[in-house]
Write a structure and sequence with these properties.
heterotrimer, A mainly alpha, B alpha/beta, C mainly alpha, A: mainly alpha, Fumarate Reductase Iron-sulfur Protein, Chain B, domain 2, 6 helices, about 45% helix, B: FAD/NAD(P)-binding domain, FAD/NAD(P)-binding domain, 20 strands, elongated
Chain lengths: ~110, ~350, ~600
């Protein structure tokens, strides 16, 4: 995706009453450590992909919880699976597994 | 007359000794170093009122009556329990028998080199909050190791706290407000310096803490950024290059700074595990000693005659520690007068 | 021609195995690419075939590699395989003496005592009978050991053994019965015709109280039936490894390797696994209770059972490959299978945006992303490089750059190739002659996937060069150190000696129980996608215990990931080799430095 200096963000408010949680639940079931996240941002700070993209695992996790799948899709495509985030995470989230599961979920027809 | 041993001569131990000797018990205060006052004797001033730490320790020392038997440079190496009495064997070969024991061994500071990516003991301008607090005793502005006035200083919260990577999941409670206090003091000494505080969550939980935060923002212009430091590298001019994510804005954030202050958290004191085995007191998964429960029996343990006060049972502020020590003294009094 | 109906089970079984193997082997070889077939042809008509024959003799028959694991276990395998082999060879020679035909059906040597009971008066008879009895005794001792191994694997140097399936159990029971059945039949024969030697004659005497006349014929039937059962179960059980291993050795020596998932060589690998279970003890995941070792993984591939978890749950440390007596490249198979997973939709991995252009330097230093979390390594390399006097710059000084190997390990080939493309262009922009990296993971990728003009060195090799050329001088200290071989540097790239030589210049290097290719994994490996951080730390703790590091002052390693993982649980300080060197650098004299600067300018 070319960088236009801004990112496409939905202007719609997030409606938690109608949140699409299927992807989050799929990942949570296979990798429960996703629930430990305290959104401190250490992963985003160390992220190699953050040098050239908006990637931040913290954001990915929050967006998943809020059902913002389109944005998740954009972000995780930059991940290099280098595992630095796993080494800095204060809650020991199994981040590489989490990313692979998200990719897997995004390809599945979930309802 | 009942005899009481207080193990640990910090502010909790001294406070309990003062209260119990006032009740005419025979109190033995045992301290492994050669000075009373624990960590607090090294502090400069106390939050939130910025009163003098030295003064507090000196006041306590003055209040310790002559009747308190102070044993310095001594450790407990063995203990036995018979007929409701504890016999303690000391490192100098002596031994003594007591009716009750208060454990006030407190905490040790998190060794910052264990958080290797922050560069403590690798880069010269990375210091801990404890070192900064001691430096404040000098009344000089803050200099880098190369004797330049520090023009930009970053404080990092939660170093060794809330971090499963170092095995400490708990919050050390006092570092947030200490950082605000130290940032203000630094701003006072280095006028015009840019000061950043990087926090995960800002926990201003007690009375007047929020006021201190307010003051730091408005009077001193201290910048608060929500983000956790991931790594530090050193530039050729020995300034430090820091990496964060600004988590409120959702963008990576980079900063070059003259000095880095690590707000080190609390861990159980070195010999806490040994004491737990000696007196058969359980430890929590945070390795601090466990009281009987966390509500009405915070000073009691599951062993008769063994009491806890201060940070031996988890991180506490100075105010809480002193209250805890007085409460423990009262529990000891009740225990000894139970019949 | 001699014939009796009882040979039918044996004959049918043998024909079945032979036919099955011919078809299977043909199908595998046929699926090889044209180039690979050419390799195979070349191998058959070159002296290297001799290497294969020697290896088949050494490994398929003598099982020399198993002797290295444990002598008793080795004897058990040799007595069964080589003993049986000699029994067949000798039987065929023996037949030549009695038979009137030049070609005999294959069952004659097996049931010779039935077809030729009166061998005793023959000139060579007694000698043959003695040898045959002797071999039978050796094989029976092997069977007894195999039986004992079921109950006391510890005596065979195995802490854990394989949990077998029904077919394998049927095959093993029939295998155990073959030689006792032969003993029984031949002993009856010896009791009747006195055509045995020390073993069968003796057993025959003991059994002579039985109605031997009536029992001998059923005994030959029994012998034939157990042989038949074994042969029929062989292609479907683990014993398929016996014929397949021969093919494996030939293909391997011909230079054929598995290149993608389901490659014919991979199929040969899978069928060549004997499930002996030696990999189970070698694998550190066993201590966590995972049955994910090659024996289980290859079995699940062969029988096509569900095994997503097995594919992911592997450290790719390569210890199993080192331990495998058959030499199966199981880590390759896992890596290839991972490429079948859900491919990431890779987009732009554009690093160059934030990486400043490097000056033209002699040495380009690439710390690697993990080294950024272990700043001691970066600091140490900075002072070593400054001291060495060469012109250098650091590629990833401020922002980390990825080498692409983590993606490769996760099977994301397309994405990895994009990363490699970008990082290669970053490296080549600098025109450096030497690329030094601190991370063995990057080192392996740079060497294997990058095709760089620069000479790629791991920093331990680079430091070794500097020491040899006296461009850095270090002092000796009295400290004792133990060295941990990182998987990717040691087994991955065969760099074992340089770090040891560097270390022994500075401190007292103590040996560990797990040196070089036997080295343990720290647990932090990026190869494993499955296990969580707690499990990784548990592996690290076990590794440190087994290395018995308490006798040392420092644990030294040469990988930021190993250091980071060990530091979390180690009772003694963990340092990188570069840190130990930098801590003990003596200032080189200025003259040397100037000389060097001139040399590099001239160059």
């Amino acid at each position: 995706m070319p960088d236009f200096g801004f990112s496409i963000q939905s202007s719609q408010p997030i409606d938690l009453d109608k949140t699409y949680r299927a992807v989050y639940n799929f990942v949570k079931e296979k990798e429960p450590s996703i629930q430990r996240c305290i959104y401190c941002g250490a992963c985003g700070a160390t992220c190699t992909a953050a040098n050239f993209s908006q990637m931040s695992l913290r954001k990915v996790n929050l967006l998943l919880l809020r059902g913002q799948i389109a944005e998740v899709r954009q972000l995780v495509e930059h991940c290099l699976l280098c595992g630095k985030c796993m080494l800095v995470c204060p809650r020991n989230v199994n981040t590489r597994k989490m990313i692979l599961l998200i990719h897997q979920a995004l390809k599945m027809p979930l309802s | 007359m009942s005899k009481i041993a207080i193990i640990g001569g910090g502010i909790a131990g001294m406070e309990a000794a003062i209260r119990l000797s006032a009740l005419n018990f025979e109190v033995h205060l045992i301290e492994k170093s050669f000075i009373l006052g624990g960590h607090v004797k090294n502090w400069h001033m106390l939050f939130p009122d910025l009163s003098s730490a030295t003064q507090l320790v000196e006041q306590q020392k003055n209040q310790l009556r002559d009747s308190v038997n102070i044993l310095l440079g001594i450790e407990v190496i063995r203990a036995s329990y018979t007929n409701n009495k504890y016999t303690l064997y000391f490192s100098d070969g002596s031994s003594n028998t007591f009716d009750a024991i208060i454990l006030t061994t407190g905490f040790k500071l998190f060794p910052a080199q264990r958080k290797e990516e922050y560069g403590y003991s690798i880069y010269s301008n990375v210091i801990t909050s404890a070192e900064l607090e001691e430096y404040f005793q000098t009344d000089k502005p803050l200099y880098t190791k190369e004797h330049r006035i520090a023009e930009r200083i970053a404080f990092i919260h939660c170093v060794g706290s809330r971090d499963d990577k170092v095995g400490n999941r708990y919050c050390s409670k006092v570092c947030c407000v200490t950082a605000v206090k130290q940032a203000m003091e630094t701003a006072r000494r280095n006028p015009g310096a840019e000061i950043y505080l990087f926090y995960m969550d800002l926990r201003m939980f007690d009375r007047q803490f929020e006021d201190l935060y307010f003051q730091a923002q408005t009077q001193y212009g201290i910048r608060f950024i929500r983000g956790r430091l991931s790594e530090v590298s050193e530039k050729p001019d020995s300034r430090l290059f820091l990496k964060f994510e600004d988590t409120l804005l959702g963008k990576p954030l980079r900063l070059t700074t003259d000095m880095l202050v690590l707000m080190v958290g609390m861990e159980p004191a070195e010999n806490t595990g040994q004491l737990a085995r000696l007196f058969n007191v359980p430890v929590g998964n945070d390795k601090f000693l466990l009281p009987k429960n966390l509500h009405q029996y915070r000073n009691l343990t599951n062993q008769p005659g063994i009491f806890l006060a201060g940070c031996v049972s988890g991180p506490k502020t100075i105010g809480e520690t002193l209250t805890d020590a007085r409460s423990a003294a009262l529990e000891v009094y009740n225990y000894l007068n139970r019949n | 021609m001699k014939f009796d109906w009882f040979v039918i089970p044996f004959l049918a079984g043998l024909t079945f195995v032979f036919g099955f193997c011919c078809i299977k082997f043909y199908l595998w070889i046929q699926r090889l690419s044209r180039g690979e077939k050419a390799l195979l042809k070349k191998h058959f008509f070159s002296p290297s075939l001799w290497v294969s024959i020697k290896e088949i003799f050494n490994e398929s028959l003598l099982h020399r590699k198993i002797f290295r694991t444990n002598a008793l276990l080795g004897y058990m395998h040799t007595s069964l395989a080589f003993g049986w082999f000699l029994l067949i060879v000798l039987g065929n020679i023996e037949v030549k003496f009695y038979s009137h035909y030049s070609v005999n059906p294959p069952y004659v040597p097996i049931f010779l005592n039935y077809f030729e009971p009166n061998t005793a008066p023959h000139f060579f008879g007694r000698g043959f009978r003695f040898l045959m009895d002797f071999l039978l005794l050796i094989i029976l001792s092997g069977v007894a050991l195999a039986y004992l191994k079921r109950f006391q694997p510890n005596r065979f140097g195995m802490r854990r053994t394989m949990q077998h399936q029904v077919l394998d159990k049927l095959a093993i029971i029939s295998l155990w019965c073959i030689f006792p059945a032969r003993l029984l039949a031949e002993s009856f024969s010896a009791a009747l015709y006195h055509n045995g030697s020390f073993l069968t004659n003796t057993v025959g005497k003991w059994l002579s109280f039985l109605p031997v006349d009536n029992l001998i014929y059923p005994a030959w039937w029994g012998y034939s039936i157990v042989l038949g059962i074994f042969f029929f179960s062989l292609p479907f059980s683990r014993y398929m490894h016996i014929p397949t291993e021969v093919l494996l050795i030939i293909l391997r020596n011909a230079g054929i390797r598995s290149r993608y998932f389901n490659h014919p060589f991979q199929q040969v690998d899978i069928y060549a696994c004997s499930r002996c279970g030696i990999c189970i003890d070698a694998c550190q995941l066993s201590t966590l209770g995972y049955a994910t070792q090659p024996a289980y993984y290859l079995r699940s591939l062969r029988y096509k059972t569900q095994h997503n978890e097995l594919t992911e749950n592997c450290l790719l440390c390569g210890r199993c490959v080192e331990a495998c007596p058959v030499g199966i490249f199981s880590t390759d198979i896992r890596s290839h299978e991972r490429t079948l997973g859900h491919e990431m939709n890779s987009v732009h991995y554009n690093f160059s945006k934030n990486i400043p252009k490097q000056k033209n330097v002699e040495v380009l230093y690439f710390a690697g992303c993990m080294s950024h979390l272990v700043p001691g390594i970066k600091k140490a390399m900075t002072s070593i490089l400054n001291q060495s006097g060469c012109s250098w710059s650091m590629l990833d000084e401020q922002e980390t750059v990825c080498c692409g190997r983590p993606l490769l390990l996760a099977g994301q080939i397309t994405a990895a190739n994009q990363v490699i493309m970008h990082t290669r262009s970053l490296i080549e922009r600098s025109h450096a002659r030497i690329l030094v990296t601190s991370c063995p993971i990057c080192f392996k990728t740079f060497k294997e996937n990058y095709r760089l003009n620069a000479n790629v060195l791991h920093h331990s090799q680079f430091i070794k060069h500097l020491q040899d050329e006296q461009r850095i001088v270090t002092q000796r200290i009295s400290a004792h150190v133990k060295y941990h071989d990182p998987c990717e540097l040691g087994r991955g790239m065969n760099v074992y000696n340089e770090p040891r030589e560097v270390l022994s210049h500075i401190a007292h290097l103590l040996p560990t129980n797990h040196e070089k290719n036997k080295s343990l994994c720290c647990g932090g490996s990026l190869g494993n996608i499955f296990i969580d951080v707690d499990s990784k730390l548990q592996i690290a703790t076990n590794t440190l215990q087994q290395m018995d590091i308490r006798s040392a002052d420092y644990l030294i390693t040469a990988c930021p990931l190993c250091q980071k993982t060990f530091s979390a649980v180690s009772p003694i300080p963990v340092k990188d080799i570069a840190q130990l060197v930098a801590d003990n650098l003596l200032l080189a004299n200025a003259e040397n430095k100037n000389n060097y600067a001139m040399i590099s300018e001239n160059a």
